[in-house]
Amino acid sequence: MNYLRNTWYVAAWGHEIGPGQLLARKLLDIHVVLFRDDAGRPAALLDRCPHRFAPLSAGHVDQDIVVCGYHGLGFAGSGACARNPHGPVLRNMAVPSFATHEAHRAIWIWMGEQDRADPALIPDLSYLASAPDTAFSCGNIVAKGNCEVFVDNIMDLSHTDYLHPTTLGGAGITGTRPTIVEAGDYVDVTWFAPNTRPSPLLAGLFPDLPATTDFWQRVRWFAPGVMRLTAATVAAGGAEDEALANVNAHIVTPETPTSSHYFFAATRNYGVDDAALNERIATAREHIFGTEDKPMIELVQARMGDADFWALKPLLLSIDSAAVRVRRHLAKLIEVEVAVGDLHGDVPS
Amino acid sequence: MNYLRNTWYVAAWGHEIGPGQLLARKLLDIHVVLFRDDAGRPAALLDRCPHRFAPLSAGHVDQDIVVCGYHGLGFAGSGACARNPHGPVLRNMAVPSFATHEAHRAIWIWMGEQDRADPALIPDLSYLASAPDTAFSCGNIVAKGNCEVFVDNIMDLSHTDYLHPTTLGGAGITGTRPTIVEAGDYVDVTWFAPNTRPSPLLAGLFPDLPATTDFWQRVRWFAPGVMRLTAATVAAGGAEDEALANVNAHIVTPETPTSSHYFFAATRNYGVDDAALNERIATAREHIFGTEDKPMIELVQARMGDADFWALKPLLLSIDSAAVRVRRHLAKLIEVEVAVGDLHGDVPS
Amino acid sequence: MNYLRNTWYVAAWGHEIGPGQLLARKLLDIHVVLFRDDAGRPAALLDRCPHRFAPLSAGHVDQDIVVCGYHGLGFAGSGACARNPHGPVLRNMAVPSFATHEAHRAIWIWMGEQDRADPALIPDLSYLASAPDTAFSCGNIVAKGNCEVFVDNIMDLSHTDYLHPTTLGGAGITGTRPTIVEAGDYVDVTWFAPNTRPSPLLAGLFPDLPATTDFWQRVRWFAPGVMRLTAATVAAGGAEDEALANVNAHIVTPETPTSSHYFFAATRNYGVDDAALNERIATAREHIFGTEDKPMIELVQARMGDADFWALKPLLLSIDSAAVRVRRHLAKLIEVEVAVGDLHGDVPS
Q1: What residues does each domain of chain B span?
Q2: Which one of A133, A190, B234, B246 counts the least CB within 10 Å of its CB?
Q3: Chain C touched by A72 (CB under 8 Å)
Q4: Minimal CA separation from B120 to chain A, in Å
């Protein structure tokens, strides 16, 4: 599978890697080990010692160095060998390394040409970092679905009416034609459903909500799989900036062509000091995602098998417009990257 | 693998599909979903929504329609789209469907050219339907063995003496040369073992049986994997129509080249009102099949791996005559089907 | 994968096959069934009945014959058919057999050209047979690692300092340049570490050991995967023949290209009548191997996947000298065997 290489992927939430810890993760079919140096800066190496191919993640961190658990070679975050108990340290002893950058509570990794890894290219998810802890939750899972199938799921929120009828659905998205805007580095899709019932989940959290509300949902997608999702509800006719708004993140990083790391986070503009509410929302999200989205996407992947999405000739409906825009946008980026790599004779493999 | 396509396969026992239920089953490498319309008639669709490839079996039945659980598209038993909450219903929205017919307590499916699906071609297993409930039992399993290995197992009942010595064996089949008759659409094999002991299972059920009996076993095979097995025991010298007779069905439908759906049913001509006896026989059959036949066939398949049976150069013995006839009969049918398909340029894929 | 064929492999420890027992084992990708004849002599057959491909190991032993559990064919240890309940025994009914020889408490198997199976070619491990039971223990496991990765592990004992720091390591092997001797049919590697601490395991067993000791380790490798490992500790300056010495065996037989049978045995020259000590050593070895070596080697294999070791361009260090000698020695033997087979047109497949 052709992955987009010259881009930032989320490799982990920042909290997943404590001092002295090693985190093994397969990203874009590559085994990576993540850790922090003494200053807390993240680093990422190929998770395979160049000597005898032991996973470095089966070793330990000693100061700024990852020490292989098999024969004791040590490597710095740069990939350079920093310790060889058996003889001199030579320059050819390095292990491949990957640029990393911590931002917006996440650790981002650049797996393409390393000299192009510019942190300024990381999408702005600063709302995650600025949210108070009582209005923030996050999580992540590995699921057996291609990353684009996960993106499709968010780019077409009409699925909430069928897959989540008792929680997120039933608030008027079906039948609402969304507005789609494609710009240089993102695709936006917005549904505005006036005079609708609040979703069962929101109605449960706020029994005093009026029976008729206006409801917006907006997704902004950044390549390759970063999505900000805003869901806002206000009494019918109210202004959007008075709405109860959830601003979430859905971020997908390929593990393999048929499995993905899914990172999600939730923030909101109401009850921001309410830790109990925060917990209720996190629990609901875990339940919905774990028992409805994840199983459905894994079933879809199972039916698709190893086939390419387009080769299966999907029956496209109006609701697929945004997802198809995103698929084409990403395909174009990959196409350009491969063409440029061909020109340079250095296609990432 | 080349399967015979233009033929009826058993997809399920009728009782497996209740009103409003969806049954997912892989048949001939194809994911199928079975259900009943409001009139109770069975229907079978490709178990993959043409929109986003969700299994339709993960949805629900609403009146005569299967509704996809992901985005709400609905399909009739004909495969035609019958509901689209997101826009108009168009003719190209159909999902492939398969002809079905309920007969002899089973639901049969035709996976080849649909205009050739004639219920008159279903083998006559009416003895299953006419048996009283107290003289009938059935079941089905999925097992990791090629369908022809399961057929071989029944076409050579000498295996009962070695695989089932404490139940079905020891009644004189080894050493009895069977009579084989091959006709247009079936192969018959009959063993007649006079002056033999009754099988341990029968002797256990009927302690008063004479120590010396005459024993017949007959199998009639219909392509591709439907077998009627009669086992009859009478006091030595007695007439066959006075015998205690079990008339069973063994029906194999390919799931994949190395796994099969195995459907079995039992009827008898004695103690037909004896529900307790019925239960004892069903329990014994489940035990014998589950702990002896199924494990052995799965072991055979494991040793065969993905290899073709003939490529492994089996050492054929006299006891294989009927099974080899059946294999050749089926191979011929498949060969003709493929040749005709090639002529028409429409080989089933 | 090219295995060396014309050589003896350990198939089992002798105690694994009792009278009347069948032992199924996959060796060099071939399913083999092992048993003993009435005189107790071992025999090995292809574990697949030539008739219907049932594993013979699913049958039983009747006197000197393995009887297939499916249709009752019986085979002698020579592979010749010795029983056919369904008709005459013909010469073409044989199953392939493999030469076996019991020596040094092990059952050896020759899977290449059968007329070349000379027991004189079995490496001399007579120290295993002559050890008293109270100074001997052995075991075996199947692990998911290529056999050469297991051999590498023993040929470079510097790994003990990193993988086993609390038991076998820390006794001065790191930094000790070993002496390597390659002879006609073996490779020897010896480390001599004077004035070192005893290993934590030994210090735990013998609290009165001096704090400073001389420590030897020697491995003699015989193709394809038989290793005798001697570890000897004496008070600094003492003579080697006064040392506490463990003389162990590490024997690897390929199961598949990525999995191996690992046979290990331990003997010693101290406390040879001490059954409790024997048990403590056996327990420690099981623990070290099961929780440290085996997991590490399986992780290494997982990172190597199906790739050839050299294709992955390992970073060779000085500590790899003996292991590399062994790999090249074995590669040369296989190369010659394949070339000779090509000449004769009878390459073992």
Answers
A1: 8-121, 126-334
A2: A133
A3: yes
A4: 33
Q: pLDDT by residue (tens digit) across B95-142?
A: 999 999 999 999 999 999 999 999 999 999 999 999 999 999 999 999
* pLDDT higher than 90, residue C345: no
Structural Rg of chain C based on CA atoms:
22
Q: Where are any strands of DSSP class E within chain A?
A: 8-13, 23-27, 30-36, 42-46, 60-62, 65-67, 74-75, 81-83, 97-103, 106-110, 136-143, 179-182, 186-196, 213-222, 226-235, 244-256, 259-268
Q: Is A303 near chain B, with CB under 8 Å?
A: yes
Which chain C positions have a beta carbon within 8 Å of B162's beta carbon?
A: 67-72
| pLDDT, tens digit, 9 for 90 and up, residues A147-163 | 999 999 999 999 999 99
Contact A319 B86 (CB under 8 A): yes
Cβ–Cβ below 8 Å for A300 and B51: no
d(CA C192, CA C216): 5
Token pair of C215, please?
């420590």
Chain B, chain C: beta-carbon pairs less than 8 Å apart:
64
Per CATH, the homologous superfamily of domain B126-334 is Naphthalene 1,2-dioxygenase Alpha Subunit; Chain A, domain 1 (3.90.380.10)
Q: Quick one: pLDDT at residue B346?
A: 56
* CATH for C127-334 (3.40.50.10240, 3.90.380.10, 1.10.10.10, 3.20.20.140): 3.90.380.10
pLDDT in tens, C23-60: 999 999 999 999 999 999 999 999 999 999 999 999 99
CA distance C304 to chain A (A): 7
Q: How far A163 CA sits from the closest chain B CA (Å)?
A: 5
What is the pTM for the complete model shown?
Answer: 0.94
Residue C94 touches partner A, C-beta closer than 8 Å: no
Q: Tell me: domain A8-121, CATH 2.102.10.10, correct?
A: yes
DSSP B176: P
The rounded distance, in Å, linking the Cα atoms of B26 and B260 is 9
pLDDT band at A1 (very low <50, low <70, confident <90, very high): low
